[in-house]
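Notes from the 1:1 (GR / supervisor)

We went over the backlog. Supervisor wanted to see one worked example end to end before approving the batch request, so GR pasted a single chain during the call. The sequence is below; no edits were made to it. Supervisor asked that the structure be written out right there so they could see what the output format looks like.
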Amino acid sequence: MATARTDDEIRSEVSKAYGSRVKGTLARADEIPLVQANSCCATETATEASCCGDTTSDIEITNIARLYADANVSDLPSTVTDVAFGCGNPTAIAALKPGQVVLDLGSGGGIDCFLAAKMVGETGRVYGVDMTPEMIALARKNREKVGATNVEFRLGEIEHLPISDDSVDVIISNCVINLSPDKDQVFREAFRALKPGGRLQVSDIVWTKPVPDEVKDDMEQWAGCIAGALVESDYLGKIRAAGFTDVVSTAAEYPGGKGIASAAVVAVKPGGVPSQKLTFEAATPGACCAADGSDC
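Structure output shown during the call:
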C-alpha cells in the first residue's frame, strides 16, 4: 500500500502533474494561432499536453462536444481546448447573467472562464484561480489571444483564495475540488467569497460507493481525479457544513460499474436576493477521470 502523504505533498504532486501536462502547450502557445479547435487532441501537442494520450481525434471531438454541447467553443484556440481536463460544463449549469462576478476554482487553461466571460459580458467580471504556475501562465497567454478583457487569472490555492469576502455572485469549478486534500477548507473559502444569495455550481467527480483503500494514497490516481474524490453524500455534507443551503446534486455514473460518477452540484449562500432555482442534468461522463484511463 502506498505511503500516506501530507496535504502539502498532495498539492505539490498534483501541481507537478498538471504542470507537466501543459508544458508542451505552454512552450508553443505563442506559435499556435487563434483557430477553431474541435478537440483536446486536435494538435500534435495533445499527447504530451493532455490526458488524452494516443486516443483518436474523433473520440476527443466527441468528448468536447458532449461536455460543451450548448457552448460556443469554436472561437477558442487549441491552447485552451487541449488542456480542458473537466468532467462537465459548469458554465451551462450556472445560468450566468450579464454583469455578474464569477470565480472559477482551478481554472486551468481558462476554457470555463472564457465561456463565462461571454455570458457575463463587458459589465461582468471573471476570476480564475489555479495553484499551478504553468497553468496560470498559459491561461494568461490564452486571455490575450481571445481578447477576454473581463477575465483575470490569479495564482493561488483554492483552499486560500486570493479573493475578497462577499465579492462573487457565482462560483464554478470543473473536476478540481476532488484534487484538494482539504475540501472542508475549499467550501469554507467558497462560502466566504460569495455574496449573500450567491451560488456555488460545480461539476466534479464523486464515488457512489466507498473509496477502495488501495486507491486512496495512489498519487497517480489523485492527479487523475479518482483517489481524492469523495462519496457523493460526504461531498454534499461538507458543502452543508460550510453553511450552504439548497444543496442539490445530479450524478451520472461512469460505465463499467466502478462506482465513479460525474456530478453537477448546486448550493446557495443564504441571505441577499435568492437566485432562481435551477434544474439540470449531470454531464455524460467523459474527459480525464476514469480510473483505468478508458474514458481519457
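Supervisor's comment: Strands lie at 101-105, 125-130, 151-155, 168-174, 194-207, 230-231, 245-253, 260-268.
Batch request approved.
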